[in-house]
Amino acid sequence: MRFLNRYPMLPLGVLLLCQGCVSTSATSASSTAASGGAAVANLNLGAAYLRQGRLTLALERLDRALDHDPRLAEAHSTIAMVYDRLGDVEEARDHHRRAIRLAPNDPATANSFGVFLCRHERWSDAEPLFLRAAGNPRYHTPEVALTNAGICARNAGDGARAEQYLRDALARNPIYADGLFNLAALAFANNELDVARRFLGRHSESAPDSAQAAWLCFQVETRLGNRGNARRCASTLREQFPESPESAQLERLGNGGRP
């Protein structure tokens, strides 16, 4: 999860969780049972290493998965994320394309490729992939793809479409924390401070405290002139997330960010 250039893209972490949800049904029909099982086992290990940021180990396990089953779409999609993290954009793109060819109706694969394209500023190509994922009745979390579409649209400069996608995400899941946070951030960017405050309040009821939410809360309450609330948000940021970039931003304001 985060919004605009001051926040890194949220959906990647969500995608990693989704990519870790692997079933043996994704293995090719020609694979033997042993080979298919080994492919899935290595895929799961690779996805776990990727979540931990252990990219070399992730790459090794995912290569093994593809050695066992070259038609395992999830392995292609996941190894694409590793290559993207390593800065090898061409290799990442190639594996995403293979995953889409192998599993054209898989919503998680479409969502993952959409995030990749959005990260590399190809909004017009990413949008239909997010919509394909969100519209698939087999996708149990369409709010994820719709939130991704909203973030991508905003980064592309289309605030109106961003708001529509984020509101569509909340129509699917009214307590989806990432959608709530990003709508709060969008409202703040538009100087709709009361709206931002309301979405942040709903977000705090749906998710644990985070550095990003505390920092946005501090900014909203400061601009509204609510000094006491701003101090509480600043205290949360300093006490719970002292090593975060947002806490550093707070300290750079001087006086510990106290309004």
Distance between the first and last residues' Cα: 27 Å
Number of strands: 0
Spatial extent as radius of gyration: 20 Å
Instruction: Name the beta content range.
Output: under 5%
Q: What is the third-level CATH name, the topology? A: Serine Threonine Protein Phosphatase 5, Tetratricopeptide repeat
Number of helices: 14
Low-confidence stretches: 1-32
Give the SSE string: HHHHHHHHHHHHHH
Quaternary state of the chains: single chain
The overall number of domains is 1
Q: Outline, from the CA principal axes?
A: globular
- At CATH level 2, the architecture is Alpha Horseshoe
Q: So what's the CATH class?
A: Mainly Alpha
Can you describe this structure?
There is one protein chain. The chain is mostly helical. It has a single domain (11-25, 36-207), classed as Tetratricopeptide repeat domain (Serine Threonine Protein Phosphatase 5, Tetratricopeptide repeat, Alpha Horseshoe). The protein contains 14 helices and no strands. It has helices at 11-19, 33-52, 55-68, 73-85, 89-102, 107-119, 123-134, 142-155, 159-172, 177-189, 193-206, 211-224, 227-240, 245-252. It is globular and about 60 Å long.
Summarize the topology:
Layout: H1 11-19, H2 33-52, H3 55-68, H4 73-85, H5 89-102, H6 107-119, H7 123-134, H8 142-155, H9 159-172, H10 177-189, H11 193-206, H12 211-224, H13 227-240, H14 245-252
Helix pairs in contact: 1-2, 1-6, 2-3, 2-4, 3-4, 4-5, 4-6, 5-6, 6-7, 6-8, 7-8, 8-9, 8-10, 9-10, 10-11, 11-12, 12-13, 12-14
